[in-house]
Structure to design on (300 residues):
DNA sequence: CTCCAGGTTCCGG
DNA sequence: CCGGAACATGGA
């Protein structure tokens, strides 16, 4: 980032690369030795130097808040269950923090995440920002855009969103934008903050394209409900393989009640560590009976 | 080409 | 409450 000198701030127990790669947020781009992104409407460059961060001048407080550098990680880790797999995930993800995301962009992004790979979500996010978001600046050759506002998306046609590769998510994202717009905009999401868990989930699920999983992601990554435990295909696989080995007929309800009690008050952190560790380990190879395919030795 | 992805919604037991 | 199917798109 050319121009003015970067400012430094202390960031102990923090791994920027790990945090940005963990599938919470999808728009940060590698730039120089660090990353360029937008926090709300503010363009930011962040670079890690051991236990401190170098950031865009004037953005220290914003960055510190966004990356939740105040979360008591030592205390968080102490609440994790002491099983082998949790310990392995912790060892692999130490320093990963749960980001505090702006509510609307978190909600909208996770609506678009349904049945999509992380890379696709990022691609969609960038397209939406570039086409419908406000240009907020640039770092080097990278132009930066804020997430499109509720008002802007609500005024679009479904075809505009489909043109960004949204597929069937175009309908639900548009519907949610219009629902929120009729409530006065993104600020209406603040009404959910004081609600207790059940009521908050119910309120979020009232938006189109929002079910239990997305609602929990928004509670965790947006509302800072660190006990929220989103169960996606990866986490479900981990739970079934590591915590319900050999058990028959483990229903979704069973997994949900287990996850809410077993992983404790910082279950959301535990979940994120399990998620990222599973993903980093790679997709489990499909077992295909190779014997069914016979080599054609007499051809070719 | 086939399989799968940070799911949601609707429908029939 | 539970399991299945449809729903779009693109990377592996």
């Amino acid at each position: 980032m050319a121009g003015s000198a970067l400012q430094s701030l202390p960031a102990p127990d923090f791994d920027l690369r790990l945090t940005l790669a963990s599938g919470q947020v999808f728009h940060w781009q590698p730039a120089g030795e660090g990353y360029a992104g937008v926090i709300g409407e503010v363009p930011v460059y962040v670079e890690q130097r051991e236990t401190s961060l170098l950031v865009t001048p004037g953005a220290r407080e914003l960055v510190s808040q966004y990356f939740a550098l105040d979360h008591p990680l030592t205390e968080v880790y102490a609440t994790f269950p002491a099983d082998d797999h949790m310990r392995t995930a912790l060892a692999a993800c130490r320093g990963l923090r749960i980001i505090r995301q702006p509510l609307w962009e978190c909600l909208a992004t996770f609506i678009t995440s349904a049945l999509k790979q992380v890379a696709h979500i990022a691609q969609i996010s960038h397209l939406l920002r570039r086409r419908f978001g406000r240009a907020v600046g640039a770092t080097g050759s990278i132009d930066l855009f804020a997430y499109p506002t509720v008002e802007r998306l609500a005024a679009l046609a479904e075809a505009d969103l489909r043109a960004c590769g949204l597929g069937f998510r175009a309908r639900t994202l548009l519907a949610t934008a219009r629902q929120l717009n009729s409530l006065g905009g993104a600020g209406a999401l603040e009404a959910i903050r004081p609600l207790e868990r059940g009521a908050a989930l119910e309120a979020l699920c009232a938006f189109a394209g929002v079910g239990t999983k997305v609602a929990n992601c928004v509670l965790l990554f947006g509302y800072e409900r660190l006990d929220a435990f989103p169960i996606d295909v990866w986490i479900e696989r981990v739970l079934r393989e590591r915590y319900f080995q050999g058990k028959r007929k483990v229903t979704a309800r069973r997994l949900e009640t287990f996850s809410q009690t077993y992983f404790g008050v910082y279950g959301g952190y535990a979940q994120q560590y399990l998620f990222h560790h599973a993903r980093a380990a790679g997709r489990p190879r499909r077992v295909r009976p190779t014997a069914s395919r016979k080599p054609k030795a007499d051809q070719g």
